Amino acid sequence: MNGIDYIAQILKQEGVEWMACFPSNPLISAVARVGIRPVAFRHERGAVMAADGFSRISDRQKFGVCAVQAQAGAENAMGGIAQAFADNIPILVFLGGNNLDRLSVKPNFTAARTYQGWVKQVEAIYTPNQVGDVMRRAFHALRNGTPGPVVVELTGDVCDQEVPEAARTYKSPKIHRQVPEASAIEEAAAALIGAKRPVIWAGQGVMFSGGADDLRELAELIAAPVFCTMPGKSAFDERHPLALGAGSGTTTGPANEWLTGSDVMLALGTSLTRSPYAQKIKPGKTIIHNTNNPDELNKDEAADIGLVGDTKLTIQALIACIKAKTGGKGTGDRARTEAEVAAAKATWMAKWTPVLTDDSEPLSYYRVIQALNDTLDPENSIVTHDAGAPRDTIVPFYTATTPHSYVGWGKTTHLGFGIPLIIGAKMAQPGKFCMNLMGDGAFGMSGTDIETAARSGAAITTVLLNNSAMATYSGPTQGTIGKEAREAYGVSTMHGDYAKIAEGMGAVGLRVNTAAELAPALRQAQKLNAEGRTVLIDVKANVEDRRSRF
Fold first, then answer.
1. How does pLDDT run across 145-160, given as a tens digit for each residue?
2. How many of the other CB atoms lie within 10 Å of CB of 517?
3. Measuring CA to CA, which residue among 236, 243, 177 is closest to residue 204?
4. pTM score, two decimals?
5. Using an 8 Å Cβ cutoff, are 80 and 415 in contact?
6. I need a labelling partner for 469 at 20 to 30 A (CA). Which of 209, 286, 407, 445 fits?
7. Residue 77's closest CA among 60, 58, 59, 64?
């Protein structure tokens, strides 16, 4: 058994069922021989991003796996890997490698050297005896510590060699969770009990740890409303009376009110990274910061109390401590807090409801989002955005319910991520309706993977906002591209019949021009997806420049 075949056997042992790939890697045939399905994408970046989407849905119980070729393949994959690294997503990427005697010869690409700083861990295989050890370290890194991309470079002639039987000793590493120090839990519990206006800031670590139910219990126990970050959106049911909604650079009125006026903020499962795609933390608060990475404490925000540990276990420890201190009663006036949240939401929605229900043509982004809320079954759907205006408009207004009913992303914002991400999500949850919302600018970056979805049977729906422009850069108050470039040279202008393009790639193309056509098109897409057909809905949209910013 050579190194490649041994890796395939290990992947099978680890429960891997499919692998994204493009265009060539010896592992592709090897995994097929052991019953792992390879799915070929149309670009290396898309293959990596689909693995990312799969991992986002799987909460570190399963991992997206991807294989690309040496040299150009490893170079093209870097954009997708950078996205996973920025968002702390655990994926396993196999790169084809040069032969041992060519590793340091210009211009040959060596990932073990070049990828440093882009990934959580990268390791090349230099002897056949290493294979099992390298794979054990890889899966340990995927399961433990801060999530992130793990890369294995398959040195060509080394991995072709026989792995000695004595070296075939792979043992699957277990996950190891830690709890914060008891004294820190005590201090945090006391701060929350003493708070006059607490707020919870929930990141994606809540979902990765399986802590969504515990989060709800804690919020109710201390009468604290919950704000979800963009990656954390869907960690807390937005129909709950303590839900403030979610935010990227845009957010809801209630979220802005509590993030501004709170005195104690409990940040759970989050890095608290400052970003144009995140809400700012206002000064003058006591910050209690939970993360599984001590390097994130005091990175961007000063932590008054640090809780380093698994988020679910941290929440459970806080619940137990607060109950012990309050005789099981908890703290705060839940009825009053819920009434205040409802009032703040009513004030905010009074401004936005006319926008969300406006049937004017071309259709606004918000009218499309309202149709999603009205038409989809949220518990049986997975929705994601793309970069730019679709992200800024949908994150505050789409109602997320159960964990991963919405997938938020984007500390680095790669246009076109939505299509491969939602294909990966469909591979993780094939029984759910999986949909991405994107603009026509983003389509140019990944649109050919509509063919991947159609060919593979991972039936998705893409709702494309077709306005022949990049709204983030084209509106009167958006971006830095002025009318000099737009009007004289057509910068930010593009055209396409995307329904027709989708049909040419084996999908079903639907066109929507009026508000009355939105719900029927979405219902038809759900029916077609259930039959295994991929759908693109081409919506004639406005150039939307309104944002819920504060």
1. 999 999 999 999 999 9
2. 17
3. 236
4. 0.97
5. no
6. 407
7. 64
